[in-house]
Every structure is written in structure tokens, then in C-alpha cells.
């Protein structure tokens, strides 16, 4: 599908930051994807297709000045394409500015040489999704036993970020209505999780979408409403779904992250419908041997408060943020730092203690490491602590996450002085504060 031209439609355009954030891999047929888009007078090359739905496809695009972004192109020939575009555009324009919500850079119309006109959103390009994190499996071992789900650090990080997003969204009067692991993505440069895909969102009290939420993350009241709509029964205006549906979905997501189990079949079972609290208790009891007790109880109680059948009794995003679970400091697992990119790279298995106590040798190592690391991108700073925590580890701060990701890819598995390099990412915020985690192995 060759491209001929496009026209901008929105004056509120921000220039995307010139950092490359790697997309999630997509195995969709690439033969029909556009080759390029002309966006605001500049040619952007399509690098890959990130995802494809019924009414829209999402692409990773790059401009000549090395900036990267995502384009969400709504299909012109599918039912509801234009509606989906106008819906998502209007919601995103209304809620811009929160750090845990994807940034909309602008909108444009794409005119292909086939004579097809499509509507497009130019969006911030994000990284790995929670769905991919779940697929990639467990976070290793704890106390010598296998740990089924992700670390408490990762669960807490995701929970806090998405509750912050929901708290803002709900204050603005919106319901997301399609919260699921695929719609929560990690931002490498902002070091936080962000909420995407507002195609089913609506103003509370003015629900203009009949079928909401995805199977497996659908609240009981949404399940009932969808069934009635399918049967052709008209719903009262007052009986529409509320922001409580988002809390239900988040409760399921956090339970899956903690347990490492996809819960779709469990949620369909009669046992779940009869007493989901008992199943939550069972999941936590089976993991209690490998997790610290008090944080586990706080997380369990937080999740249970999100999974109450009566939406009026469910916690709100604001009250959930007051949970004692968020007052407990956790250290990341080493697997977390491999999975979640940041501008800081941490190199392990390189420096012997003997190198640290000879000042001349230490300075030579600093220079050699800086010279080597600069091959992969712009190095802002480099630190090799002489004492614990972090003794003998090499911390390299790059100008952006794109450079650190390239360095991580090329340095991992290389040998220096007969040693295999282990390269993980490291939280920029912790590095800037001089806080070096003793990560859980």
C-alpha cells in the first residue's frame, strides 16, 4: 500500500522526543502495511507493525532525524473505523498531561495511492507490555524456592502507576473500560507504566458503548450489561457501568502478575462466581512460603478490595493508593532489570576487587569502560563503586534509553579478560539519587 500524502488536522502538536523505544514484536502479515507516512510535512518510515485490531493497526515509525513514534491508523473500510478514531482522539485530547497516560502528539489524515483515506493518531512509542511480562514468565527464585509470579517490586510499581492514571482519569469523569495487560505499557525513558487504548472509554453517566471490557478482565456488572445488550434489552441511563469496572480489571491484572497464572478460565468457573475471595485467599496461601508475609497480606487485601461483586463497595483508585502495600520499600529482582529498559545500564562480572584498590589502575579502567561504552551511544556519566552497595559493578548512564538498549544488546555475553559480561538496566531515578539496590538474584 503505497503512500501519497497526508494533512495535519490538529494544531496542538508536540514534537516526539528523538529517542528510539523498541516496540513489542508483532507477527502480523507485513505485506499490506504502509511504507511511509507524511506527517506534518515530514516523511516518517514505517519500521514495523506493532499490533492489529478490527478497526485499527499500530505501527512503529521513524523520521529522518532519528525520532521514533507510533502511528495508530484507523481502517477506512471497516465498520466503526471513523467512530473509533473520533472517540479515541477526543478522549486523549481531553486527558493529556498525566505521566501515566500515553502522550498524543497529534492527528493527521493519510491518503494512499490506492485512493483510500485513513485517519491516524501520532502517539508516544512505548516499550514492553504487561502482557509480554506475563508471557516471559516468573521472576526466578526467592528463599531457594521457585517464585511463580513477578516480584513484589514490579507488582507494586505497576499497581501504583496505573492507580495514579485511573485516579486522574476518574477525576476527569472518564471510565477506561478496557483495562487489560496489553493496554499497560512500560516507558523506558520515563521509567513508569502507562495506560493506552481509550477506544472504549466513556464519560461516567453517559455511556455510549454497549459492549465494554475484554473477557477475563470484565467486571460482573459489565458482564450483565453486555448480556442484556446482546439480548436487545434496553438499559436505563442510571444503570450504566461506573469507574468501578476499571478497579475490577486492575485487581485481576495484579492477581495474574503476583501468581504468574492466567485467570481467564478461573474467572469463568462457578467457584469464582460463588466466592472469588476464597480463590484469592487460596492463590496467596500457595505463594506464602516464597514471599514476605506482611507485604503479601497487604497486597492480598488490596486486590480483594478491588474484586468485590458490588461495584459500590469496591475501593476507588484514590483510596487504593492509600493502601499500606505502597508504603513498603522493595528491591527489584535482577530479572526485572533485564525486562524493563531504562537509560542506565549496569554491567556485572567485569571488575575484580584488586582493580579497585589501585588508584592508577582504577582510573585506567574508568577510561577504558567509558571509551568502550561510547561506541553504542552518548554516555552522560559512568560510575564504578569501590565499596558496597554496588562494589565493582559498572553503571553507565546514556543520553536516552535507545542507546542503553543497543549497548545492552551488544554487550551481553561478550567477554572481557576472559569474563562473560552480564548487562542489565538500572532505574535512572535510583541512580541519580546515588541509591544502589542490592538486587534480589
TrEMBL record:
Region (Disordered) residue spans: 1-28
Subcellular location: Nucleus
GO cellular component: neuronal ribonucleoprotein granule; nucleus
SMART domains named among the record's database cross-references: RRM, S_TKc
Enzyme Commission code: 2.7.11.1
EC class of the enzyme, as a word: transferase
Record keyword Nucleus present: yes
A molecular-function term among this protein's GO annotations: ATP binding
Role noted for this protein: Upon serum stimulation, phosphorylates CDKN1B/p27Kip1, thus controlling CDKN1B subcellular location and cell cycle progression in G1 phase. May be involved in trafficking and/or processing of RNA.
PANTHER family the UniProt entry points to: SERINE/THREONINE-PROTEIN KINASE KIST, SERINE_THREONINE-PROTEIN KINASE KIST
Protein's UniProt name: Serine/threonine-protein kinase Kist
Organism listed in the record: Sparus aurata (Gilthead sea bream)
Gene: UHMK1
Amino acid at each position: 500500500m503505497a503512500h501519497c500524502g497526508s494533512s495535519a488536522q490538529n494544531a496542538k502538536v508536540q514534537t516526539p522526543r528523538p529517542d528510539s523505544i523498541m516496540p513489542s514484536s508483532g507477527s502480523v502479515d507485513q505485506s499490506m502495511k504502509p511504507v511511509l507516512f507524511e506527517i506534518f510535512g515530514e516523511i516518517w518510515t514505517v519500521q514495523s507493525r506493532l499490533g492489529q485490531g478490527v478497526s485499527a493497526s499500530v505501527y512503529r515509525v521513524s523520521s529522518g532525524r532519528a525520532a521514533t513514534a507510533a502511528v495508530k491508523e484507523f481502517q477506512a473500510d471497516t465498520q466503526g473505523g471513523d467512530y473509533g478514531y473520533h472517540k479515541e482522539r477526543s478522549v486523549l485530547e481531553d486527558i493529556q498531561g498525566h505521566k501515566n497516560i500515553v502522550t498524543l502528539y497529534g492527528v493527521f489524515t493519510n491518503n494512499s495511492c490506492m485512493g483510500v483515506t485513513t485517519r491516524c493518531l501520532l502517539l508516544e512509542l512505548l516499550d514492553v507490555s504487561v502482557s509480554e511480562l506475563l508471557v516471559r514468565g516468573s521472576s526466578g527464585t526467592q528463599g531457594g524456592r521457585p517464585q511463580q509470579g513477578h516480584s513484589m517490586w514490579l507488582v507494586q510499581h505497576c499497581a501504583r502507576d496505573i492507580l495514579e492514571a485511573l485516579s486522574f482519569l476518574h477525576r476527569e469523569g472518564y471510565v477506561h473500560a478496557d483495562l487489560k495487560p496489553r493496554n499497560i505499557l512500560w516507558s523506558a525513558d520515563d521509567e513508569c507504566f502507562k495506560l493506552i487504548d481509550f477506544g472504549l472509554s466513556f464519560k461516567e453517566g453517559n455511556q455510549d458503548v454497549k459492549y465494554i471490557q475484554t473477557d477475563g478482565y470484565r467486571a460482573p456488572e459489565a458482564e450483565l450489561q453486555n448480556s442484556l445488550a446482546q439480548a436487545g434489552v434496553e438499559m436505563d441511563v442510571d444503570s450504566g457501568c461506573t469507574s468501578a469496572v476499571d478497579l475490577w480489571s486492575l485487581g485481576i491484572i495484579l492477581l495474574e502478575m503476583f501468581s504468574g497464572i492466567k485467570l481467564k478460565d478461573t474467572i469463568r468457573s462457578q467457584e469464582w462466581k460463588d466466592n472469588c475471595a476464597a480463590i484469592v485467599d487460596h492463590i496467596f496461601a500457595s505463594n506464602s512460603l516464597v514471599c514476605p508475609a506482611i507485604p503479601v497480606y497487604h497486597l492480598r487485601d488490596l486486590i480483594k478490595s478491588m474484586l468485590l461483586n458490588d461495584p459500590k463497595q469496591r475501593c476507588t483508585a484514590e483510596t487504593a493508593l492509600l493502601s499500606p502495600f505502597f508504603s513498603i520499600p522493595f528491591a527489584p529482582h535482577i530479572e526485572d532489570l533485564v525486562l524493563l529498559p531504562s537509560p542506565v545500564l549496569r554491567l556485572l562480572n567485569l571488575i575484580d576487587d584488586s582493580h579497585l584498590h589501585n588508584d592508577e589502575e582504577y582510573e585506567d579502567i574508568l577510561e577504558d569502560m567509558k571509551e568502550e561504552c561510547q561506541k553504542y551511544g552518548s554516555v552522560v556519566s559512568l560510575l564504578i563503586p569501590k565499596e558496597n552497595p554496588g562494589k565493582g559493578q559498572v553503571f553507565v548512564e546514556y543520553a536516552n534509553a535507545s542507546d542503553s538498549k543497543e549497548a545492552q544488546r551488544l554487550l551481553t555475553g561478550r567477554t572481557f579478560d576472559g569474563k562473560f559480561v552480564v548487562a542489565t538496566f538500572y532505574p535512572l531515578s535510583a541512580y541519580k539519587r546515588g541509591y544502589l539496590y542490592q538486587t534480589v538474584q
